[in-house]
Design goal:
Helices cover 39% and strands 23% of the residues. By secondary structure, the chain is α/β, with parallel strands linked by helices. α3 crosses α5 (116-136). The structure holds adenosine-5'-triphosphate and magnesium ion.
């Protein structure tokens, strides 16, 4: 996925300015920056929630900016949100099954309306896929618990499993470690590695520097809408421009 000179203004406010950013397939790429730097705005642009004011978004060799969100999901870009958005009264597995709708409603299941045995097969396929996704984040044992009963850290993992249910090629995570304790952070790290092993590329928007430094292959840094640095985590941690803009406040 590549962003080429992406800008976004809201009224008079310049939220993002001419950002170039590449996410390499098979990697965990992190996007960091202080509050209000424009990180969520970039995810919103990549996933089609906002059109960019200028620039283009390319994925797998095609220009995708301007496409509606559902088409971007069908191309394999799926995101989670900064604030938890689960159906808390539904079970853990039902929440993940909701994430299957992008492929389960596709044409191949239409004949199921006329054929009871194929309805059962389709449901079984969705159920099995949802269980596999729960396994990725180590939540299979809670499949039938109400989602609202899970502690915060597991709710964040459940959101990732639900996003993975859509079979993404690129998973975009908006601050998955926010509010996690040390133990939960380690479980998150394991889940990120399982997702990567399952063949999904990750763009990780995060404030949590220890996590970013330990899992990322490449780090992009933005500040007040502009890209200020990129590089491998070890170099980014020592880059004086980054330390001044960001790490100095957080470490
Ligand atoms: N829909 C919107 N309308 C107007 N201004 C917006 C909108 N979305 C974002 N902004 C502004 O754009 C700037 C970047 O916001 P954004 O949410 O992308 O930052 P962020 O890096 O995700 O910050 P945080 O770490 O706090 O989540 C901020 O000044 C924000 O107030
Ligand atoms: Mg944000």
């Amino acid at each position: 996925m590549q962003l080429e000179k992406i800008s976004k203004t809201f009224g008079g406010l310049r939220a993002v300015h001419q950002v170039n950013l590449a996410v390499k397939e098979g990697n965990i790429t992190a996007l960091i920056g202080p509050n209000g730097a424009g990180k969520t705005t970039l995810i919103n642009i990549i996933t089609g929630l906002y059109p960019p004011s200028e620039g283009s978004v390319r994925f797998a060799g095609q220009k995708i900016d301007g496409l509606p969100t559902h088409q971007i999901v069908e191309k394999g870009l799926v995101r989670t949100f900064q604030l938890t958005r689960l159906f808390k009264g539904m079970s853990v597995i039902e929440n993940v099954m909701v994430g299957c709708h992008s492929w389960a409603r596709a044409g191949r299941f239409i004949p199921t309306i006329l054929n009871r045995s194929s309805v059962i097969r389709a449901e079984a396929e969705i159920h099995e896929h949802a269980r596999d996704m729960l396994d990725l984040v180590n939540l299979k044992k809670y499949a039938h618990e109400p989602a609202g009963n899970l502690p915060h850290g597991q709710q964040r993992l459940l959101e990732m499993a639900r996003a993975m249910a859509a079979k993404p090629r690129l998973l975009l995570l908006d601050e998955p470690a926010a509010g996690l304790n040390h133990y939960e952070e380690d479980r998150l790290k394991e889940s990120l590695q399982s997702i990567l092993r399952a063949g999904t590329t990750i763009l990780l928007v995060e404030h949590h520097m220890r996590l970013v430094m330990s899992v990322s292959d490449w780090v992009h840094v933005i500040d007040v809408g502009c890209k200020i640095a990129e590089g491998p985590p070890k170099e980014i941690g020592k880059n004086p421009v980054v330390v001044k803009a960001y790490l100095g406040k957080e470490y």
